[in-house]
Design a protein that fits this description.
alpha/beta; six-stranded parallel β-sheet; 46% helix; Rossmann fold; N-(1-d-carboxylethyl)-l-norvaline Dehydrogenase, domain 2
């Protein structure tokens, strides 16, 4: 049985832990706010009091935390429980610049670093349908197969060296697509309403046509029904726009849409919507709160 330590049991981490357990893996979980990890005990997880306690005895350590600083802090705290030969699957969205210190920490302690961010939000995580964008040495792939198979529908290997960050490089492009598409849908619905029409009419125009897809429908329905339960929190999406911008600038690329989405997200955060789904960028389209 593969033993997994999962550090971070938020919107994504908790359903990932449950899917690992359903597939018969031994799972030890840790979260900085322990109360967010404790419900997983009912599913069979061992709730650890520290990252080191979670990592001790694990074959694979997964990090699913907010950003690179949080990942680095947790893994430094995990050091007493690490041992040479463990595999560290770094599955958070941390951005390209964060990879250097993370991979250096892994090398220092003789553990294998695999850059493996995921594409998908809360619902795919719950269903075990994430897409894993992985880069790491060939010898890590066999041990990771049951782990990635439990949480994902597909693993796309994009390199043999996790330190190069090909998984993260691909992730900033795919998350940028989701972020900008959400912003476009939200802006269109706000514009329809601002012009005095029922925003549902926009849905009637695009549904079933070449501009339609399941993602557009999901975000449109969230806005039309006022259901902003976070699948991908607006605050985290804003963080990702900054990571996208940093990566793009380092490559000499302009990402005007992602930059504009970031501005919208910051306005919505200032309006009090930071912990809601990123579809709440809809509110950033109004100079006064919508009726």
């Amino acid at each position: 049985m593969t033993a997994v330590a999962l550090l971070g049991t938020g919107i994504m981490g908790a359903p990932m832990a449950r899917n690992l357990l359903r597939h018969g893996l031994e799972v030890r979980v840790w979260n900085r706010t322990r109360s967010r990890a404790e419900p997983l005990a009912a599913d069979g997880a061992v709730v650890a009091g520290s990252p080191a306690e979670a990592a001790a005895g694990a074959d694979v350590v997964i990090t699913m935390l907010t950003d690179g600083d949080a990942v680095l802090a947790a893994m430094r705290d995990a050091v007493p429980g690490l041992r040479p030969g463990q595999i560290w699957a770094q599955m958070s969205t941390v951005g390209v610049a964060a990879l250097g210190p993370l991979s250096a920490l892994a090398a220092e302690h003789g553990i294998t670093f695999v850059d493996a961010p995921v594409q998908g939000t809360k619902q795919p995580a719950e269903k075990g349908r994430l897409v894993i964008l992985a880069a790491g040495p060939q010898e890590s792939r066999g041990p990771l197969e049951p782990v990635f198979g439990a949480v994902g529908a597909k693993t796309l290997w994009v390199g043999d060296d996790g330190a190069q960050g090909n998984g993260t490089r691909l992730k900033v492009t795919t998350v940028g697509y989701a972020i900008t598409l959400t912003s476009i849908v939200a802006e269109a619905l706000a514009l329809v309403e601002g012009l005095g029409l029922d925003p549902a009419l926009f849905g009637e125009v695009v549904s079933g046509g070449p501009l339609d897809n399941a993602y557009v429908q999901a975000k449109m329905q969230a806005i039309l029904t006022g259901d902003y339960e976070p699948s991908f929190a607006l605050r985290n999406a804003e963080k990702d726009t900054r990571l996208i911008g940093e990566a793009a600038r380092s490559a000499g690329i302009r990402v005007d849409m992602a930059d504009a989405a970031g501005e919208r997200f910051r306005r919505a955060i200032d309006q009090g919507h930071g912990d809601e789904d990123m579809a709440a960028t809809y509110f950033a389209g109004f100079t006064a709160p919508p009726a």
